[in-house]
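Write out the 3D structure for:
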Amino acid sequence: MSHTQTTVSWVRNVATAPAGYHSATRPGLPWGWWRANHRYTIYMLRELSSLFIALWSVRFVMQLDRMRSGKNAYEAVVAAQRHPLSVLLNLVTLLFAILHSVTFLQLAGTVQTVRLGARRLPAEHVTAGAFAGWAAASLMLLVTLLCGGRKEGTGQTR
């Protein structure tokens, strides 16, 4: 951010308007203003991710409620999960959740200060620790899901 000194004080220089913006004829920014800058694009996609994650969460809670009705309801929910639109929604939501998680964890070193005695841990180490924790938790969840339903010693599922 640059500043210009005047006789009274420093004044912040304002960035130029995006291409296609004409304040005299059409106030406001053009519809795709955020696509001109990579950081703005990531920010807007991160905000959009909240919508998909919320929709997935509501759908998940509704499916849990339906499954309480018995075996037939459970089989209906499993059959619905195999529908191509359901698979597509799950994949898009997973991609948005990964984007949201990565952008959130990238901020860990900036937002969180970790002190070891009198020494401050560098921001890069805090961020690396956050990603390592995410990887460890994901690995533990994967192992639990893959091996959690097996009987000991038999290799059979319950």
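Residues 32-107 form a domain with the 3 helical TM bundles of succinate and fumarate reductases fold (CATH 1.20.1300.10).
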